[in-house]
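Late entry, written up from scratch paper. The run itself happened at the end of the previous shift, but nothing got recorded in the book at the time, so transcribing now.
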Amino acid sequence: MKKGVVGLCLVAMLVAVAADCNPMELSPCLGAIKGGQSPSADCCSKLKAQQPCFCTYLKNPALQQYVSSPNAKKVAGICGVTIPAKC
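Output as recorded:
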């Protein structure tokens, strides 16, 4: 019985994480990614919140350039967030 409850909780958590993937949440980072500015605290907070979504963004051709660019990796590094090399 406990295993079923734990499994159900894990599935619910994964669905909740997937439901929160919204690339528009990263808009505070746009100036840092596109213009090379220093990331704001809001940008870093949003990057950390969206980190579980990075593989989804990397697989989307329309979003990939914003997540995999050298500036995006630099901004993520400054914020202490890792962008996966492979998904």
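The radius of gyration is 15 Å.
(Scratch paper discarded after transcription.)
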